[in-house]
Specification:
CATH topology of the largest domain in chain A: Aldehyde Ferredoxin Oxidoreductase Protein, subunit A, domain 3
Distance between the termini of chain B: 38 Å
Largest sheet of chain A: 6 strands, mixed
Largest interface: A-B, 52 and 32 residues
CATH architecture of the largest domain in chain A: Orthogonal Bundle
Radius of gyration of chain A: 22 Å
Shape of chain B: globular
Strand order of the largest sheet of chain A: 2-1-6-3-4-5
Distance between the termini of chain A: 25 Å
CATH topology of chain B: Ubiquitin-like (UB roll)
Largest sheet of chain B: 5 strands, mixed
Number of helices of chain A: 27
Number of strands of chain A: 17
CATH class of chain B: Alpha Beta
Oligomer: heterodimer
Strand content of chain B: 25-35%
Shape of chain A: globular
CATH superfamily of chain B: Beta-grasp domain
Strand content of chain A: 5-15%
Order of helices and strands of chain B: EHEHHEEE
Chain lengths: 627, 87
């Protein structure tokens, strides 16, 4: 077995309450690393097209990678893969917390849950005894994620759902500690299986190829992170909310259901404001992560809980025109406790507000007014009243009530908090990402509109190339499994410290913007490992990983996801943006929206796909994607 | 002619407001100069803060247009932008 893996896949059948440990497929691990990649391969091979995502045929796959169980910073994440009930295509999400460490300690690389239980159940997995216990979970059913984890105790590592998952809210997530695998409705799939919680324990240690080198190098990386302006300073001080003022200034902060790109009260929901007014002094992190991007806040009547991150501050703050940090923190708490994705939740609420504003639906909630929102969030989690309809997300709501022009989703997944009209590469990424409109499947916006070395985000240069490189990298990162924030460290400190108005900086930006095909060539070079995650993978597994290897593996995973979606009936017509994004200008100098029609053909070509968006046989063979 | 200046958080702490209005600035350089004058004796602090901030006009970085000479119109928003990362 390759080092870094436990070498075991645990298969659990909830229908007949049986389980079996099987060997990890080494060839699949070599081709797909682990995490999202391995999970996607399993899902593709073991399910057929057209299955009901909330039926017994769907698989719920928890997958770790070779970096999990090490002390590498930002390495405590696991991936969940299944068919998405929200999009009908590939579903996946990754999550921090502690469950990934628990799985590796239990000696499990991948956990595959099949079939459905007739009654609420929870799993207790003891990796040292090779034992899986099926416990009745009726006593936990109905409890929030906080109370559920408290009831399960601290001796094991847990992944749980809240009422939203139980009630199959289509954007329900799976929670570990205070972190959530939020996107694509993975929690609804867990709920459909009547699986309330998975708890793991064990005492195994990660077997590395070169533990000494790993240890020494990790010390160095911790130092690099500590000195880094984003990972060691901005994230540490302000959390991800540090970006609110930046997106606001760049006119890409979703406001009033993306009707505008800036919000007059943005500063009041920013990370800086949070530090000064809302933070109670505790900054939190996933295990082994020195970045500490999480921070606690005080919520009235609840106590100290995890505070909102950027996506929540934007989608449930500015996008609802709410500049009250306390309210957003309260809603964030309820979403976490119910186990819901705050991106889809916020976008669905803003869609309901616009329906209300236009007199299409009496939703009882209005932009700029927090009245009724808390109750509606809880109603969504419990599928009560109007909440039952909103629990199906914006695409289904627009199919029923109309308003497709301002239903802010791609492939059924609600858009994240970067308006693509001011971030063209991000728009291409939203349109083409296999799980739908999400930012952490590439984070192209960091390279063009919010990061330290931003190119002009509103011309066509590099806007097809950047998403490809970034999507491939994200696929690899999500298969190790590492936090995507690690990529923020790639731009060195020296660049961050440059005066953005200086000639040197502008020359650098110009050079970057005009790299053209050179970017992908450079990124695809297979040489010695350079970046920390390439070195960690090399030291842990004993296999050679460079940027070029990761681009190839990432492309393989991305194309397999693509083939999964095509098998489910998706076409090039699904690679689009909401009509508001394509046709409504929000910049003074623009007469329309995002120029997707000019960029998509180039993107397809560079991906090695035909004009119909289907990967060519040659591309699949080159990447060794077996379908 | 009135232009809105959107400050960074640090600048707003010094001046006591997230935004301010300036009158008669014909281009970015003149708008920045007016903000600098509001800092008064703390001009050094302003210099420090602008070294890590780019300037955007209506959401578009001035460096993509004519830099400090980018012309302004009535109702424009000039924002100081710091690079950041979120998720």
């Amino acid at each position: 077995m390759i080092k870094g893996y436990a070498g075991r896949v645990l298969e659990v059948d909830l229908g007949n309450r049986s389980f079996a440990f099987r060997p990890l497929d080494e060839e699949v691990a070599r081709l797909y690393i682990g995490g999202k990649g391995y999970g996607t391969r399993l899902l593709y091979d073991r399910t057929v097209a057209g299955i009901d995502p909330l039926g017994p045929e769907n698989l719920l796959i928890f997958a770790t990678g070779p970096l999990n169980g090490s002390v590498a910073p930002q390495s405590n994440r696991f991936a969940v893969v299944c068919k998405s009930p929200l999009t009908g295509g590939i579903g996946n999400a990754t999550c921090g917390g502690s469950f990934a460490l628990g799985m590796k300690k239990a000696g499990i690389d991948v956990l595959v849950v099949s079939n459905c239980s007739a009654t609420p159940v929870r799993l207790e997995i003891d990796g040292d005894r090779d034992q899986v216990l099926f416990h009745d979970a009726a006593d936990l059913w109905g409890k929030g994620t906080y109370a559920t984890q408290a009831a399960l105790g601290k001796k094991q590592y847990h992944a749980v759902i809240g009422p939203a998952g139980e009630n199959q809210v289509l954007f329900a997530g799976i929670v570990s500690n205070e972190r959530i695998a939020g996107r694509t409705g993975v929690g609804a799939v867990m709920g459909s299986k009547k699986l309330k919680a998975v708890s793991v324990t064990g005492s195994r240690k990660l077997d590395m190829d070169d533990p000494e080198k790993f240890k020494e190098y990790t010390k160095e990386v911790r130092k690099i992170f500590k000195d880094h302006p984003v990972l060691g300073e901005s994230m540490k001080r302000f959390g991800t909310g540090a970006i609110v003022n930046t997106t606001n200034a760049r006119n890409i902060l979703p406001t009033r259901n993306f009707q505008r790109g800036s919000f007059s009260e943005a500063m009041n929901i920013s990370g800086e404001y949070l530090e000064e007014h809302g933070l109670v002094g505790v900054k939190t992190s996933c295990i082994h992560c020195p970045v500490t991007c999480g921070r606690d806040v005080e919520v009235e009547g609840v106590g100290r809980v995890k505070g909102p991150e950027y996506e929540t501050l934007a989608l449930m703050g500015s996008n609802l025109e709410i500049g009250d940090l306390k309210k957003v923190s309260e809603w964030n708490y309820w979403a976490d406790d119910m186990g819901m994705d705050t991106i889809s939740l916020g976008a669905t609420l803003s869609f309901a507000m616009e329906l209300h504003e236009r007199g299409i639906l009496d939703a009882g909630i209005e932009f700029g007014d927090p009245a009724g929102v808390t109750e509606l969030i809880r109603d969504i989690g419990h599928r009560r009243g109007l909440g039952d309809e909103l629990a199906n997300g914006t695409r289904r709501m627009s199919a029923k009530y109309g308003g497709a022009a301002f239903a802010m989703h791609v492939k059924g997944l609600e858009l994240s908090a970067y308006d693509p009209r001011g971030s063209f590469a991000q728009g291409v990424e939203y349109a083409t990402t296999n799980r739908g409109g999400c930012h952490v499947q590439g984070a192209s916006m960091y390279m063009e509109s919010v990061g330290p070395l931003t190119i002009n985000p509103q011309n066509l240069k590099m806007k097809a190339e950047i998403p490809i490189v970034q999507q491939n990298l994200a696929c690899a990162i999500n298969s190790m499994v590492l936090c995507i924030f690690t990529t923020y460290g790639i731009v060195p400190k020296a660049v961050h410290q440059m005066d953005p108005n200086s000639l040197t900086y502008r020359a650098l930006v110009l050079a970057f913007e005009n790299m053209g095909p050179l970017l992908r060539r450079v990124m695809s070079m297979k040489g010695p490992p350079m970046l920390w995650f390439e070195k960690w993978l090399t030291f842990i597994t004993g296999e050679k990983f460079s940027g070029g290897h990761l681009q190839e593996i990432g492309a393989r995973i991305f194309n397999l996801e693509r083939m999964y979606n095509l098998r489910e009936g998706f076409t090039a017509a699904d690679d689009t943006l909401p009509p508001r994004m394509l046709h409504e200008p929000i910049f003074k100098h623009m007469s329309s929206g995002h120029p997707l029609d000019q960029l998509l053909p180039r993107y397809y070509r560079k991906r090695g796909w035909g004009p119909d968006g289907v990967p060519t046989q040659r591309t699949l063979e080159r990447l060794q994607v077996q379908v | 002619m009135s232009v809105t200046i959107q400050l960074t958080y640090e600048m707003s702490k010094v001046l006591g407001a997230p935004r301010l209005e300036v009158e008669g600035a014909r281009n970015v350089a003149e708008a920045i100069e007016q903000v600098r004058s509001r800092f008064g004796e703390l001009g050094g602090e302003f210099e420090k803060l602008t070294r890590v901030a780019a300037v955007a006009v209506n959401g578009v970085l001035a460096s993509y247009r004519r830099g400090a000479r980018t012309p302004l119109e009535d109702g424009d928003v000039v924002a100081f932008v710091k690079a950041a990362a979120g998720g």
